[in-house]
Amino acid sequence: MNNTPSKLTLPNLLTGFRFVAAPLLLWLAWNGHGIAFMELLAITFLTDLLDGMAARLTGQVTQLGATLDSWADVITYLTIALCCWWLWPDVVSRELLYVGLIVASCLLPALAGMLKFGCFTSYHTWAVKIAAVAMGLTLYVLFLGGPAWPFRAAAVVCILAAAEEIVITLLLPEPESNLRSVWDVLKRSVRHDRQP
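The structure assignment produced for this chain is given below.
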């Protein structure tokens, strides 16, 4: 009898949906199906919110799940940037600085983790969660004809969340997953230093 836990858990399947959705999002954008793209993107964002919740509720929080989630985040963000360029080139050109900040907020923490630890980091901090929700919501406002300032504010939030992740990478002696914030890492470090 095999006692190895299954990797096909509900949280991993929810995360896996984002890997499957990425080429579909690209196809929809390439073919000019903006509304269908936004609908599939909404489902993709929903699975991103639900996978971590499902992992905690089912007791299936794993290193594999955290790593898959981080890879799915990078793929999703890069896919969104490319798709939006194809679908709304005028808006993306106008907001290129802020689009660039969001892409950088995804790539720079990953690069810092690769340089220090040789692997992807999977912190999933509160700041990153807030940034993802802000970016997701304001993306719809921007591309459905609303004002640009919410998207610009979300880009700044994304950069601040990325900066926190980079600081965490600099502070940690080895990679860890599912950390709430840099303050938790600092508090733990202070407690560790006080121990005799």
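Interim note for the steering committee: The CA atoms of residues 122 and 162 lie 12 Å apart. Residues 34-58 form the longest helix (25 residues).
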